[in-house]
Amino acid sequence: MKSKNNRSLALCAGAVLLLVGMDIAASSGWLVISSPNPGSTNFFYGVAAVSDSDVWSVGYDYASNSSQFTITQHWDGSKWSMIPSPSPGTTTKCGAGYSGNMLNGVAAVSASDVWAVGEICGYGNMQTLTEHWSGGKWQVISSPRPDHNDSTLIGVAAASANADVWAVGYSEGATSATEVPLIEHYDGQSWRIVVSPFPKPSQFNALYGVTALAFNDVWAVGYANENSKGQNGQALIEHWDGARWSLVNSPIAGAATILCSIAAVSSSEIWAVGYIQTRAIQFTPVTEKWNGTSWSVVTPPNPGKVAQLFGVSSANGKVWTVGAYSTLPMSQGYMENPRTLIMQR
Hints:
By secondary structure, this protein is mainly β. The protein has 3 helices and 23 strands. The longest helix has 8 residues, at 13-20.
């Protein structure tokens, strides 16, 4: 998508697609499952499972006529199938700016309660997009954007069925900062913006992942950086206690710490993953753990010279994280010959 959003989104979600699929055979036990490709260019950004026969994946396709459409595909236990989803980012709605549609994240509560979030249009008129699956079809549910500034939603999580859903992302130029965190909440009737803090005077602030344990226990992670004075970037962690969002201290693990995803085993065991960009412009993986009192760095193994972690999930008390690594150093800001990386604890 030709929008300024690509710069921030590529820090986490976009890289999952570009890197994880490059060497699927490197991870023993993983199988490539064929899926439809409706456009000339196709991407998946999010996946969520209700059961082993009820899985959703979302993203976008870019057609040969330069039109961009949302993709939602469903796994029924035997095959992936295209399920029609709205693409409201038409030329008319987007005005003179770039028109397009993208879904970045998905959360599945039940077979008849699935949420997907993303954006429509492009830089200059970028708008939030939320869609809901009620068991029969996908439907756009109107969501706001702050003061009509460029805004996107990247992560989504549900604390309860249909009435307590959280989405996170960022908005550009909403204040004196270039980017500020964007948090929205669905209460069963409508989406509304909820005030989210950031470590001022940080100029670049974005939230990439969210997990909801209860109505008063929601976590979001991302990145904050105040670089006008040469300051280092830091992980951005926020918590909802049922009344307000507040900043939570994160260990400073490197020159620039970016947290891409978060998952909860319990209220006293929460994991966030991402990567550190060192002063030498090299990437090292990072995992942080919440023990009910504070966050601490739990150094993960690094199978190569550089590595990044983009996604984390928990099931049956185990934690899985995925990303990419390379046996070669970074070159000009890019990972050379990336390989899939999967870890479990």
